[in-house]
Amino acid sequence: MAIPWDQLIPLLESMLLMRRVEEAACELGPGEVFGNYHVYIGQEATGASVIAQLRPEDPVFSTHRCHAHCLARGMSIETIIAELLLRGTGASKGKGGTQHIMSLEHLMVSTSIVGGSTILATGAALAAQVMEVDWIGVAFLGDRSLAEGAVSEAFNLAGLWELPVLYVCENNAATPYDPPRRSNLNLAQLTDLAETYGITAVAVDATDPAAVYPVAVDLVERVRRDRRPAFLEARTPSWPGRAGGENPSLAVTGVTDLSLVWEPLADDPMEKWHRADPLLHMIELVLAEKAATKEEVLEMDRRIQEQVAQAVAAALAAPFPPAEDAFAHVYAGGDLWPK
Amino acid sequence: MTYLEARNRAIGEAMASSERAILIGGFGGAGAPEGGYAKAFGERRVRSTPISEEGYAGAAVGAALLGLRPIVTFSNASFMFDAWEPVLNEAALLRYMSGGQFSVPIVFHMTIGLKVGWAAQHSQTSQAMLCHAPGLIVVAPGTPTAAYELMRAATTSDDPVVYVDSQLLYRETGDVPLGEAVRPVRACVLRAGRDVTVVAVSSTVPRALRAAERLAAEGISVEVVDPQVLSPLDRAGILESVARTGHLVAVDEGQLTCGVASEIVSSVAEHGYDLLKAAPRRVAIPDVPIPPGPTQLPAVAPSEERIEAAIRAALD
């Protein structure tokens, strides 16, 4: 079994929570979520599988598409949604917003500068090496970030210095096993770039949780044991709700109907997407392995949707932080430097 | 002790006092440990780097987020432009954007100092640009004592600090009080005077002191102030001096427009207009790139002669 039986339910729960939070973000829409926001719909198997292998002391560096990584890391739904809505109760006290949800307690950093997560995670791995501790650094990055010089520089340093860092490249524009989009990268395969720098690289179809989970286990273990970098390309198709417009929307797909797993539509206009949807695959797996019944899955979904609805209501009711907070958190404070 | 010895002494003290201090890139010269920092502290904590400014500066920021205290050198300030992303977008902003959760205790070291033959691409003076990045502390020592004290302050700070280091000062000598407790860093009066305040930055400090000495023979009493920290600027300290003299000349080896000298003059004009008896003056690099040639470079440098002329003009 690719996924240990006792991990099936936690993995489904993690993926379902990601999905329902992102759908809630889309429903709130640009009127409530200020700024451009980016959702993780269709990529859930990757973040849930990788982050489930990490220890609390492994720092995680995410991107502009950070909501779901923060959820998998165990940050509260309330502080994540409040940050989307720029409330003072948000994880980053309303100073970061949708693309910069952070938690020191969870060692979760998010940066919206494309490629930035890779150099920071490489440095976290350097810290582990210098301090002679056994944590690993983990960077999530998008496929298009591989065109950034920073990413090649990070790969080179990680290879040269043998740093324990895992780069999780989420290729969310892949029809699995198509070559990279040529408008951005002159590479035959994304893994080629990492391999050029001597980094172990694996590509996987991340629409299938049973495929991505064991690779995540293996790469996290390898980086931790061998103290060397590794690269994972997780291939998922582009979710149709991302097409067109500045912000994602549920206009095309609607909210996810879990019953499609056991009652597929005869003439489904979204058939291509539904066949790729890792969440539906995960439910199929759970049912096939008898880890839960349909009713139990639906009950889990009801509970999660209720939690998300409560978090949304709490965030909407919370005030924006006072204007004077704009002047806080610039410096550490103290008397060393002039004010 | 020379300026370079003082700076290197402070780096050595930081490395000796904490296992969490690391060096990224090459420091050396007088005052460095016998055989170099790598021999003294080991290659685990002292890294020579590939030519990869964005990569190693970014990695240093990541390491700082996890509790190390990296001292990173770009050597020439021009090369730091390749690392603008981790310095300006990551180091300067992660405390703020995380709502105060994360600290980036790091020192970014860059050298400035106009030299014949180096040409514009090796002569960038970006201290003012860096002052436009709230979240960064920008320090610029002008004396051996400041070289020591500012490096010590920078290596104990919980904020990211840019250490602007003029290679033109390396051989300056002075008595440096070693080993005292790290003190709050403020603008510092290097020479007391009654008639005019010259706020001089980095390599312009010795030039301002020499100009002051020459003018003293004519009965002009010049007060020379080293701001030491360019951002956040110690405006109160500068205003105190202007309150004594009533005249101001601001000097920086950086570009004139929106530059450090401009900020000093604006601050005094805004907050101390009534203290001024005449229009303040700026001495900086005119708004041209730095020429390499021996006839042209002196025409743009903030020289002793230009400082002296500005003092006379301010008092005219």
Would you give an account of this structure?
Chain A has one domain (5-312): Thiamin diphosphate (ThDP)-binding fold, Pyr/PP domains (Rossmann fold), CATH 3.40.50.970. Chain A has 11 helices and 6 strands. Chain A is of the alpha/beta class and 339 residues long. The model of chain A has no long low-confidence stretch (mean pLDDT 95). Chain A has a 6-stranded parallel sheet, sandwiched between helices. In chain A, helix 1 (5-28) packs antiparallel against helix 10, helix 1 crosses helix 11 (294-317) and helix 2 (44-51) runs parallel beside helix 8 (209-226). The radius of gyration of chain A is 20 Å and the shape is globular. Chain A has helices spanning 5-28, 44-51, 67-72, 77-84, 116-131, 149-161, 191-196, 209-226, 271-276, 278-288, 294-317, and strands spanning 60-62, 108-110, 137-142, 165-171, 200-205, 230-235. By secondary structure, chain B is an alpha/beta fold. Chain B has 2 domains: 3-169, Rossmann fold; 188-315, Rossmann fold, CATH 3.40.50. Chain B contains 13 helices and 12 strands. Chain B has helices spanning 3-17, 37-41, 53-65, 77-80, 84-91, 94-97, 127-130, 144-156, 204-216, 235-245, 260-271, 297-300, 304-315; strands at 21-24, 46-47, 69-76, 107-112, 137-139, 161-166, 188-191, 196-200, 222-226, 229-231, 248-255, 281-285. Chain B has a 7-stranded mixed sheet, with helices on both faces. In chain B, strands 7-9-8-11-12 form a 5-stranded mixed sheet, sandwiched between helices. In chain B, helix 9 links the parallel strand 8 and strand 9. The longest helix of chain B is centred in the first third of the chain and has 15 residues, at 3-17. The model of chain B has no long low-confidence stretch (mean pLDDT 97). At the A-B interface, helix 5 and helix 6 of A face helix 3, helix 5, helix 6 and helix 10 of B.
